């Protein structure tokens, strides 16, 4: 009977610690919180090594503290500014060319008369989302290969051109990157817009038709405003993932010949940290990156709030 | 039946053509890769294969599937996908259920504790040092499974579903004297099974496509996963191609697999997902939308 009383008290939301009510809940929380502590919070405090000259066998406690020396070092490093520039530029290209594509696709898909065809197209558009970047990059590398790729075979046999080393020429690398990103992601990204489109009240269109509004004016005054909120949400999220975006894609497609235009913060951090074992320096870059990232998310969120009256939190 | 104007009809035809181009852009590359993988080697080496196979041979597939490395990678992938997903779903559901309780002592702290992990992370290097230097998990499955076991994003998704369960149902169980664990297993889980299924599929796809932790934490080939195996097969070749340009011919040329072999590996690794995805895609769509509402 004690049990029953406890639950009645719980329904009344009694505050303070209550062993019989709280202990089972803590047991449910324990494994997850422990894992987060070990694999999230310890590395979070581990960024302390950004202020050290960290030597693995001496450990975090035994290594020498050097203040802001690592930060000074990379701020003077030309490579750092190069990857910073690349990260921003590639993201900008992504937003200008990659971001609108799913919106256009969703709008056009929504206009198809045959719902069967619509469904087929949509299902096929999801396919690249399900295959890994390793496979996608493998496909892109194969068809773009200078010696055996079908595109170069076509250029040579039909147009009589010399083979082009697409993935090794700076001018081609970024467009390929953006196209690969669109190819892999547009179908799933369109899902958000299609859901928003289907939630627009059909009566609005009826009313507009009676008022004599044509297709274009309906699109402009009803459809696009209906997509406004979700577009802003996704834009904020995109900017929020700016510094980490595209790691797999770039890592699997780039090579030293295109570092000049393709190397970004995440790939640079990997090479510097894991391959060259410069732990402290890389952690300093990582820390800076997190701070920049947070400022970006925070300010775009505020901007979204000011412009559209909507925000993430 | 509403009559369509000529303008609308023309637009419809153009739209259909655009959609057909999109389908082609997705399917043709895959078809081309597939066709090379099953064509006769003479047609492949003379670069004659376009969209459709020329001749037919499955030698490359037989070779790949027969190698120890492939079998081992497949085994590792299945193991990590299965164990990782099951453990993840259990831990996530437990967290979500606990957080869905209206009140317990310290709920606010726990909520912040979880949400903070979504916005701040220590990054690649501190995690790497922790796993290799302090926990010594190199070349273990734990290094693949544990660090990404808890995803707070999915905790929030599952929690919002649990909160949508009518409270009468939960309270009636509570008054019957059922403890938290029994309420969770007997009342909550049966109701939210579709959500759990959707979350499992997201997690399983992520695990199946995983390769980066292998690059970081595995030095033994016996710890490879399928994706990493594919990366090595496809990418070493292009690495070699590049090196050939600069370094001459003295690289271990017999290691380079013929094109059939590479394309067949792409297809073998892609095939399970390509076959399954039409049946599970609706869960993904639902899951994405559920996430966007609460996330």
Largest sheet of chain A: 2 strands, antiparallel
- Sequence stretches where pLDDT stays below 50 over 5 or more residues of chain B: 239-257
Question: What portion of residues of chain A belong to β-strands?
Answer: under 5%
Q: If classified by CATH, what would the architecture of the largest domain in chain B be?
A: Orthogonal Bundle
CATH class of the largest domain in chain B: Mainly Alpha
> Overall pLDDT of chain A, averaged?
86
Number of domains of chain B: 2
State the assembly state of the protein chains: heterodimer
* CATH level 1 class label of the largest domain in chain A: Mainly Alpha
Q: Work out the largest interface and the residue count of each chain.
A: A-B, 99 and 94 residues
The CATH superfamily of the largest domain in chain B is known as MetI-like
**Strand count, sense and closure of the main sheet of chain B?**
none
Strands across the major sheet of chain A, in which order?
1-2
Helix-strand layout with pairing:
The complex is a heterodimer of chains A (313) and B (295).
Chain A lengths: L1 H10 L7 H28 L5 E2 L5 H4 L1 E2 L3 H8 L1 H21 L1 H11 L4 H16 L2 H12 L5 H8 L12 H29 L3 H9 L4 H26 L6 H7 L5 H4 L2 H11 L3 H30 L5
Antiparallel strand pairs in A: 1-2
Chain B lengths: L5 H33 L2 H5 L13 H8 L1 H33 L6 H13 L4 H11 L6 H5 L6 H12 L3 H9 L4 H29 L3 H6 L8 H22 L11 H36 L1
Helix pairs in contact in B: 1-13, 3-13, 4-8, 4-10, 4-12, 8-10, 8-13, 9-10, 10-13, 12-13
Q: Can you walk through the features of this model?
A:
The complex is a heterodimer of chains A (313) and B (295). Chain A is mainly α and 313 residues long. Chain A has two domains: 2-65, no CATH class; 70-308, MetI-like fold (Orthogonal Bundle), CATH 1.10.3720.10. Helices cover 75% and strands 1% of the residues of chain A. Chain A is built from 16 helices and two strands. In chain A, helix 4 (69-76) crosses helix 16 (279-308), helix 5 (78-98) packs across helix 10 (170-198) and helix 15 runs antiparallel to helix 16. Chain A is globular, with a radius of gyration of 26 Å. In chain A, 34% of the residues are buried. Helices cover 75% and strands 0% of the residues of chain B. Chain B folds into two domains: 6-57, no CATH class; 61-227 and 259-294, MetI-like (MetI-like fold, Orthogonal Bundle), CATH 1.10.3720.10. Chain B has 13 helices and no strands. Chain B has 295 residues and is mainly α. The two termini of chain B are 42 Å apart. In chain B, 36% of the residues are buried. The interface between A and B is large, with 99 and 94 residues.
């Amino acid at each position: 009977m004690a049990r029953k009383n406890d639950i009645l008290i719980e329904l009344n939301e009694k505050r303070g610690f209550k062993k019989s009510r709280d202990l089972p809940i803590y047991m449910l929380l324990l494994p997850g919180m422990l894992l987060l502590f070990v694999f999230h919070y310890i590395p979070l405090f581990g960024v302390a090594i950004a202020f050290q000259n960290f030597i693995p066998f001496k450990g975090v406690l035994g290594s020498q503290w050097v203040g802001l020396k690592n930060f000074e070092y990379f701020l003077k490093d030309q490579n750092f500014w190069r990857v910073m520039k690349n990260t921003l530029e590639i993201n900008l290209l992504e937003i200008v060319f990659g971001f609108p594509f799913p919106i256009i696709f969703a709008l056009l898909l929504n206009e198809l008369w045959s719902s069967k065809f619509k469904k087929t197209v949509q299902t096929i558009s999801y396919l690249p989302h399900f295959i890994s970047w390793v496979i996608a990059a493998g496909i892109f590398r194969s068809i773009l290969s200078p010696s055996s790729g079908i595109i170069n075979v076509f250029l040579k046999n039909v147009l009589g051109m010399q083979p082009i080393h697409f993935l090794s020429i700076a001018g081609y690398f970024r467009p390929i990157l953006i196209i690969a990103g669109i190819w892999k992601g547009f179908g799933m990204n369109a899902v958000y817009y299609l859901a928003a489109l289907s939630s627009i009240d059909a009566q609005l269109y009826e009313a507009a038709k009676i008022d004599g509004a044509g297709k274009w004016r309906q699109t402009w005054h009803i459809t696009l405003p209906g997509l406004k909120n979700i577009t802003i949400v996704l834009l904020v999220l995109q900017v929020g993932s700016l510094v980490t975006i595209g790691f797999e894609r770039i890592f699997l497609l780039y090579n030293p010949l295109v570092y000049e235009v393709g190397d970004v913060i995440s790939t640079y951090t990997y090479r510097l940290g894991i391959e060259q074992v410069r732990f402290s320096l890389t952690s300093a870059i990582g820390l800076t990156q997190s701070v920049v990232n947070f400022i970006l998310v925070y300010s775009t969120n505020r901007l979204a709030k000011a412009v559209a009256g909507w925000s993430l939190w | 039946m509403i009559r369509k104007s000529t303008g609308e009809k023309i637009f419809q035809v153009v739209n259909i053509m655009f959609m057909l181009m999109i389908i082609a852009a997705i399917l043709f590359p895959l078809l081309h890769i597939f066709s090379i993988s099953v064509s006769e080697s003479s047609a492949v080496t003379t670069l004659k294969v376009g969209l459709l196979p020329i001749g037919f041979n499955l030698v490359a597939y037989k070779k790949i599937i027969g190698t120890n490395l492939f079998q081992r990678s497949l085994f590792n992938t299945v193991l990590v996908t299965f164990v990782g997903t099951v453990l993840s779903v259990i831990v996530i559901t437990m967290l979500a259920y606990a957080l869905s309780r209206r009140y317990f002592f310290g709920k606010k702290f726990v909520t912040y504790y979880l949400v903070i992990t979504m916005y701040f992370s220590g990054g690649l290097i501190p995690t790497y040092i922790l796993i290799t230097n302090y926990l010594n998990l190199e070349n273990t499955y734990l290094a693949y499974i544990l660090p990404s076991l808890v995803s707070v994003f999915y905790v929030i998704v599952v929690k919002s579903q649990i909160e949508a369960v009518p409270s009468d149902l939960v309270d009636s169980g509570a008054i019957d004297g059922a403890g938290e664990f029994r309420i969770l297993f007997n009342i909550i889980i049966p109701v939210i099974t579709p959500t759990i299924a959707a979350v499992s599929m997201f997690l399983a796809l992520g695990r199946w496509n995983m390769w980066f932790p292998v690059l970081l934490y595995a030095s033994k080939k016996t710890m490879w996963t399928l994706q990493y195996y594919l990366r090595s097969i496809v990418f070493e070749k292009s690495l070699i191609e590049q090196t050939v340009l600069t370094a001459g011919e003295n690289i271990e040329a017999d290691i380079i697999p013929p094109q059939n072999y590479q394309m067949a590996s792409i297809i073998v690794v892609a095939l399970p997902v390509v076959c399954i995805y039409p049946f599970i895609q609706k869960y993904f769509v639902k899951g994405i939308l559920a996430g966007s509402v609460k996330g």
